[in-house]
Structures are given as structure tokens and as C-alpha cells.
Amino acid sequence: MIEVFAAIKSLIKKIPYFNKFYSRLRANKSINWSKLNKNYSHSISNKKNNVLMATSLGDYEMGVLLESCLSAALRLRDTNVDVLLCDSALNACQMSKIESISPNIMAKDGPISRCNSCIHYGRNIFKGAVDNELYFSDYILPEEKVLASKISKQTPYDQIKSYVYDGLSIGEHAYAGALRYYARGDLNNEFFGEQILRRYFKSALLTVFCMDRVLEQNNYDVVCFHHGIYVPQGLITQVCQKKNIRVVTWNPAYKSNTFIFSHYDSYHHTMISEDISRWQDIEMNETKENAIKKYLKSRRQGTNDWIWFHDTPEENADKIKDELGCSFDRPAIGLFTNVMWDAQLHYESNAFENMLDWVFASIDYFSKRKDLELFIRIHPAEIRGAIPSRQPLLKEIYDKYESMPDNIYVIPPESQISTYALMDKCNAVTIYNTKTGIEVASEGIPTIVAGEAWIRGKGFAIDVNSKDEYFKILEDLPFKSKLSNEHKLNALKYAYHFFMRRMIPIPFIEFDSKTGLYSSTLQSTSNLQPGNFQGLDLICNGILNGTPFEFDDEDYLEQINS
Asked: How large is the C-alpha radius of gyration of the chain?
């Protein structure tokens, strides 16, 4: 009989739907939070801190895994923790994706088809991990639902994106959410585009009403949650900021088992605005330099990452030349793109209207510069990312240009040509907001920043703030030299800061590349006690005391260097 059950389980795990179900069941059962409560006092008045884990999305697997673990860890550090979850109160959210909910169904019914799963999974995984479970519907008044419906229906379509309510940028996050749903950089010609944008708009308003009341009726020292943008998280961020309640946001990082945490705002903003003294004053020793150089080298193959885009990257220069039909006999300029829909927020420093505007302007310019070769590397995440783009840049380019000039080469996202091997050939690289700019500058290659890339304002990149300034800098190409030793060192320091310090290790959250699911390896809540995981201790201290989310550990560096 045991053999029969084992065979059935093995068969089930091979079926995609049941494989996902089985993996979720395993993830849920890996932690028994009820044991935590046996030795835990529920007297809120005795606790030093009150934290709201504003998770919201119960079906965000990595989010609920990490945040349930954080909740339990914080309670073990003399903290009261509540969790806020959506109970189908919203008309649209980050969990709404076009591949799982078609536009016609989304426009008509919203995400209701997956709400039950979301509610059940969130409730199940937080059960026993927190003091109180709060739900959106309990904090939204009937008259507020009416008001949200009225505003979302009556606001002119072309005014939604810029709509501000009570000082909050409601429309910006609603629009970003709709773009994420469609996986596009705009909503032009999308069936049901207006209806779905209005759904996100209404949900953004409802989130504001909910958070206003949650924070009025409960006393929290800090609110912690993932992303900090889109719907509902972007609005949660803004309501907390308006009420002067401290915010901690996080995102999964590149390196396996690591996460980026930020104070006050999403890391999409804080990585640009943080004081340069946070990294510029780092004293690079041999251990640190070896660690970052070793990691940057591993990025070419993705061997130490849980986010990568090439299985077998092509590094051979002759094979790259054969594939592209280029010669590399003229100075090479790289143009490295990003996914058009990703995190489309307002940044005052942008020199162009959007990434597409930058790409077209660059093509027009370089078509007249026959002394140079331009290599447009379309980001592989367009097809290999978590949400494949439905607005392929290659199509946008060839819709506008019948053919490319003989000095411009477009590398499609499916190409195995290594971005890093291409980078090695470049005299300079121009970027919009891709994080690859960190690695480019670390190699001493001059990097021109036309958008909101994180290396903007750091002193080692070439920042541009207008189209005229951009073209004026391009006139100096090819550059006569690489970055100065001082600028290259600063670029390496920043790379170390970003990849080694800001990416905090949490080894008990693991990713299964076969199923695409995350799970926890924790066997006991006692593992979450202080002193067991340095990364967890650092994160909990940051949440509770506002200390920097920067991981400095020479022993850890020695370990990864070995």
C-alpha cells in the first residue's frame, strides 16, 4: 500500500496543476506556526513594537512565505504583528495577469476567478504566525465603495494616469498596474484597455480608503510589505507616507536566497535617491574586491542567481560576428534595453518620454554615424521574465523602420548572445533603466544614462537630463578612454554595495527552478530566534529600529570566496 501511494504521489507531481498544488501543500506544511503560540504572550500592551505586515496578496507565494516568516520572527522579538489581506475587495490587483485572466473576463468580472485561492492560501499560511488577521472589506465603508465607483467611472480616460486624490498619486499606480496586467508599455489599441484601467483605478481608491481606516483604528510603528508600487502596494506606501508612518518595503534580489529591503519607499525610488556616502565611503579590501569580482563573473552564467535569462550564453566573438553579420571593425556602442512595462513610474530625471522614445531617437542618430556600430540588445526578460512582454521591442522597431542601417544591429531577446560578451566589445554603452549599467560601469566602460537607472547621480556614469544633452554627448563618441581609475573604483564600490550589501541572505527561502515555486526549509519556529540567521537579524532590526538594510560580514565574504 505504501508503494501505491508513493507511485500516485510521484505521478501527481509530474502533472503541472497538481505539481503546483503539491508544492504549495509542502510549503504550507513546512512550518507549524501553532507551536509558536504555545510560548507566546498575546498581551499587546506588553509589546515594545506594533508592526503591520500589509501583505494584501495572499496568492503571492514568495511574499506570503517570507512575510509569514518575518511575522513569526518579529513576534519572537517582543513585537505585536498584524497582517492585512485582501478578501476579494479589490477589482484588480498585482495578481491579475493576462495569461491567467483574459481581458474580456477581467473587464467583466475582475480577478474573482482566482480570489478564492488567494484568500485561502493567505489565511492558511499566516494562521498562527501573526496576532491578528485584518481584511480589506472590514475597513471599507459602503459609501466609500460608491464614491470609488463614481470617481472611477466619471473621470475622463485621458486624465486617469495623472489623477491625484487627497494628495496621493492614485492614477500613476493604477496605470502602472494596468500596464503590468497587459505586459505592455502603453494601452494603445488594447481590447478592454479602458475598462481594465478603470478597474485598477477603482481598486487604487479602495486601497486608500482601507488603509486610511486601518491606520486610524490601529496604532502601528511601522508597516512592512513587498514591492511598494502597483495596486495595492503603491497606494499603501503613499498613505503611510502621508500619515508619517514608517514604511519598509522589499523585493526579491538577483542572488539566490537574497532580498532587498528599503526604508520609506520602494527600492525603485530609494536606490536612486540614497545618499552616496552609503557606498562611496566603503574601504575596499582584498576580500571585498575578490567577492564582488567573483560574483560579477558568475553573472555571465547566472550560476549564483535565482533570476537569470540565458541557459547557454554565447561568449565566442567569432560566433557572435557570424550571427549578427557584423565586423567589429568600427567602434562599437551598446544600447541595452529594459522591459517596457516594468515599473513605469514618474521620474523627473528622465531625458525622454519613455524607453521607446529613447530607442527611436538613438536609431535615428546612429543611422547617420557610419563611423560607429550600434548594437541594440533587447532584454531577454521580454520572453524569459516572470511576465513575458506583449509589446516586443523588435516589432516596435520594425513597425517604424523597414530595415536597419548597415551599422545598426538588433539582437532579439531569444538570442543566446551574451550581453556581457557584447559589453566587452563596446567603447561605450547607453542605457535607460536597466540594472546592467552597474556591471557595465564596473568594467570601466563609459555608461550614458538616459532614464532612471540606479547608477544615475552616482558620479561615475554620464547622466543626461534632456534630449539635447544626450545628442551632445553622443557627438563625443567614440570616447578616447575608459573610465578613470577613480570612477572605475567607485563603480566597483557601488556594485559591491548593491550586489553584496543590499542583497541580504535569507537561506531558508528557496526556489525550485523546475516548478517555478518558492518554499521554506524551516523545520521549527525556534530557528527564527535571534542569533540563528544574520540576515534575518539584520532585517528584523531594520524593521523595528530603522537601522540600514546593509549586510556587512567578512566571514560571509570569505565563505563565498572559498
From this structure: 24
- Residue 413: asked if its preceding bond is cis (omega within 30°), the reply is no
pLDDT > 70: what percent of the chain?
89
The answer to whether the CB of 51 falls within 8 A of the CB of 221 is yes
Model pLDDT for residues 224-234, shown as the tens digit of each residue: 999 999 999 99
Contact 451, 433 (CB under 8 A): yes
Residues listed for the chain:
562
Alpha-carbon distance of 305 to 339, in angstroms, equals 19
Strand partners, 56: 85
pTM equals: 0.90
* Confidence band, pLDDT 50/70/90 cuts, at residue 35: low
Q: Residue 256's closest CA among 434, 504, 476? A: 504
Band of pLDDT at residue 343, cut at 50, 70 and 90: low
Q: What order do you get walking across the sheet with 246-252 strand by strand? A: 132-135, 79-85, 49-56, 222-226, 246-252, 258-263, 504-505
Beta strands in 67-108 (DSSP E): 79-85
User: 322-326: long-range contacts (C-beta < 8 A, 24 or more apart)?
Assistant: 323/415, 323/417, 324/375, 324/409, 324/411, 324/417, 325/409, 326/373, 326/375, 326/409
CA 2 to chain centre: 44
